[in-house]
Specification:
single chain, 525 residues, alpha+beta, Dipeptide-binding Protein, domain 3, 16 helices
């Protein structure tokens, strides 16, 4: 399946034929991709995992979408209006929207999809706190009525990354948001071929011929989504070196996330281009489980953070300083809300200081289980560094190796450690996901928040205030308060800002510059 030898043989024969012969209509064009992780969880609302988000973008569409300037643009929406007081929003869907099963996309599908998303996503939760009703008034019209002012309506329903408010059929969207869907019918430019899916190996998408793209040029997630190949095949490689060799040999076309230390080797191949596609980069996270000992104690969490010197993590996981920088703001450095409030706990990271602070907490030697995703080089390195640093600080550490897909399932468990639970996992968020307090990563609501389940009423109050703030000055004030509370409760360890390049064969055209990797508009010549 991966090499698709028949398809390659056909293409080779066509290229070798005299120019007088036209390319046969049945010759299939295929884009072969090495994704950054294995796809096991197919519900991009149930999980924030980026591999599931990328899968979502292949098969679903959104009402609005962010352009390259992070401004929301209409996508499935044709026209929209707001009342003078900004409390009533009316959205009219554009013509030609069709699900992969041949049924039209309706207002009821939109309402059900947003209702489900609004229970899992950080921005969605804030939007729904300020919403009185969301109803479909006819087949193509949806009316949102707010109960109180909310300044981020379009930014919420057009957010670019996890959780993306993808529109699903009503029957699918009515699934409990805390259970995974089993029907993968979308309306996007590609269809998911479930029968060809081999977990741990291959994911196949085919062009959806009835998709009607917008006429505007592509800009990040917005604009025309044109499927320029008949098929996109994701081929998962658990080993980065094997993946690199497959790209250089021409067996695959695109490598989404090569380990940064492979960039020099890839750059030496004249047939391969290596470049950074995301100007904001990624923010490393060490996430604590706030429900279980020993990290149910904020002082213990802060002691652990005080051991997490960013330079050591970034040097081990990323290597070349060209691709990383320290950043002690919870919001990406270089963005409007970045600040240094409360960041001393991480900025002054020191093992001896962490050891002294841990001793003051009365830590009793409770085992700390760190989940280590060995198939994601950056996260595997982060895990190893944390294990060493926390042991040196006095923690009793147990490093458990697994693949990323297993980790993303296990991190949803709130069970005790002996029954499948955990204490720490490492991840990263793209900068666009944590650019403001609405990110689910910053939630202080343990019932509806992100894995780890932090709880802090002051944090939630500050996040809610940010959502309704009307001026940049007010937003900055509330964002600073959010950051103070995140550091005060030791919500997560921030491991710095880094940039992971993409690599692709030079015959691949149409790459879209964006924090998220999209595969529409890409072709293989």
């Amino acid at each position: 399946m991966y090499f698709d030898r028949l398809s390659r043989g056909i293409c080779a024969a066509v290229l070798a034929a005299p120019l007088a012969f036209a390319t046969p209509s049945w010759a299939e064009t295929v884009l072969r991709v090495i994704p950054h992780a294995d796809l096991k969880n197919l519900d991009p609302i149930w999980t924030t995992a980026y591999i599931s988000r990328n899968h979502g973008y292949m098969i679903y569409d959104t009402l609005f979408a962010m352009d390259e300037d992070f401004k929301p643009q209409p996508q499935m929406v044709d026209t929209w209006t707001t009342s003078e007081d900004g409390m009533v929003w009316t959205f009219v869907l554009r013509d030609g929207l069709m699900f992969h099963d041949g049924t039209p996309v309706t207002g009821e599908d939109v309402v059900a999809s947003l209702n489900r998303w609004g229970q899992r996503d950080g921005m969605g939760q804030q939007l729904y706190k300020n919403m009185e009703s969301l109803v479909a008034t006819d087949e193509k019209t949806v009316v949102m009525t707010l109960s109180s002012p909310f300044g981020l309506v379009l930014e919420s329903i057009g957010k670019i990354s996890s959780n993306v408010p993808f529109i699903m059929p009503k029957r699918v969207a009515e699934t409990d948001p805390f259970e995974q869907i089993t029907d993968y019918t979308g309306s996007g430019p590609f269809k998911f071929e479930e029968e060809e899916w081999v977990p741990g190996n291959t994911i196949v998408y085919t062009k959806f011929d009835d998709y009607v793209p917008r006429e505007e040029p592509s800009s990040a997630a917005s604009g025309g989504k044109i499927a320029k190949v008949d098929k996109v095949i994701w081929q998962y490689f658990p080993d980065n070196t094997t993946a690199m060799n497959a790209l250089m040999a021409g067996e695959v076309d695109f490598f989404e996330q090569p380990a940064p230390d492979l960039a020099t080797i890839l750059n030496s191949n004249p047939d391969v281009t290596v470049e950074v596609n995301d100007p904001l980069g990624n923010i490393g996270f060490a996430r604590f489980n706030h429900l279980l000992p020993p990290f149910d104690n904020a002082d213990v969490r802060r002691a652990a953070i005080n051991a997490m010197k960013q330079e050591d993590y970034l040097a081990a996981a990323i290597g070349d300083p060209e691709f990383w920088k320290t950043c002690y703001s919870v919001f990406p450095c270089g963005t409007p809300l970045a600040n240094d409030a409360g960041s001393e706990v991480i900025e002054t990271a020191d093992i001896d200081a962490a050891k002294a602070k841990l001793a003051e907490t009365g830590y009793d030697g409770t085992e700390v289980v760190i989940m280590q995703p060995t198939d994601i080089p950056v996260l595997s390195a982060f895990s190893l560094v944390s294990a060493e640093k926390l042991r040196n600080a006095g923690f009793n550490v147990n490093l458990e190796a697994m693949d990323w897909a297993t980790l993303t399932s296990r991190r949803a468990l709130r069970d005790p450690v002996g029954e499948g639970g955990w204490n720490i996992f490492h991840t990263w968020w793209i900068g666009a996901d944590v650019i403001d307090p609405m990110a689910i990563a910053f939630s202080g609501d343990p019932d509806a928040g992100w894995f780890g389940w932090a709880e802090d009423a002051e944090l939630e109050k500050a996040r809610s205030a940010f959502a309704v703030a009307s001026t940049p000055e007010e937003k900055a004030e509330h964002a600073t308060k959010v950051q103070e509370r995140l550091w005060a409760i030791g919500a997560s360890g921030q491991l710095g800002q880094f940039f992971v390049p993409v690599a692709y064969r030079n015959n691949v055209k149409g790459l879209i510059k964006s924090p998220v990797q999209f595969f529409w508009n890409m072709s293989v010549e």
